[in-house]
């Protein structure tokens, strides 16, 4: 090995962790110490708060926190907070919001809010015998055993919605599930769901052990493999949509409304049938979704996993968005499965998360679902609008221009020159370099 492993890294103080990393991996270069320290917050209490969000924290990693204004959602005008590092995402969302503001804005519908979890277990027993035991004894005991855990959630209007026994023995010998659905109201509910499921596992073991329905050999075969929520929540879903008369689809690219609608629908259809395109198409949707998810302190990895699983639910990966152009009306919508919360987790701790939720009017979890679906739909509309008219690079590279100039060490005066220079041109890295060198040679 080229480095020595370390024991007790987590027990070292923050400076001790940094010293070890710099000396072991970075040749003792003090510059790297300075990089880490310049991102520490000057407020020691706030810095400590951030450090306690995660383990082995040695600094903060900044992401741009931007605002996309003019979102008319279900009659309310909102400004969306977006934490994202990719250039053009906030600008694209803002442009789409502005496009639809005088056409009725975005409309949303909460289709369902069920979340799921499973107790996965192995049991060498005839399925009919287990099903009888579940229906006439176990299900009631499972609900009774979790009454204390669910008491507060039930007071808020949520709790366990249903429990079912799932026979998976055709796919894996002796494999069964207790599948439970939950309503967690305004919390994402991960801890609540997992606590219920772990109790299910304990209750299942206890009830089987004392039941007269099974032989001792069968009882001995029971193995609780795991109790865990699922991030695939196809029954926790929101629809967001926009629509207008075809003639209202005026675009500044010079393309007619009819041609725009036709090409736009074709682009969506391609993403519905071609996985190579659908992957990039849905990545663009999630550009908008994840940026607001992060800004509101929710789990963007869970959001991503669920959306992509849903996109492949029929065995082929497809577009999350859909489009029709029937009877002279253009309609564009998304059905997005998404599980988020506005209480618990970082929502009560992270100052910028508090700011984001206040900015959005302190939404309920369902209202935040709607906002997230709209952000994804807007982002996708903006991307497809560019693709079927001017092409994606014209707008994207203009937003990327400052990144290139910052890498070159351009002055503010030089940056302004480039903004003017590319006003009527498509930005390319090659052309920026050429023009920059030409300026410096002068």
From TrEMBL:
GO molecular function, one term: hydroxymethylglutaryl-CoA reductase (NADH) activity
Keyword NAD carried by entry: yes
InterPro entries with a match to the protein in the record: HMG_CoA_Rdtase (IPR002202), HMG_CoA_Rdtase_bac-typ (IPR004553), HMG_CoA_Rdtase_cat_sf (IPR023074), HMG_CoA_Rdtase_NAD(P)-bd_sf (IPR009023), HMG_CoA_Rdtase_sub-bd_dom_sf (IPR009029)
Superkingdom of origin: Bacteria
One biological process term in Gene Ontology: coenzyme A metabolic process
Family statement: Belongs to the HMG-CoA reductase family.
Listed name of the protein: 3-hydroxy-3-methylglutaryl coenzyme A reductase
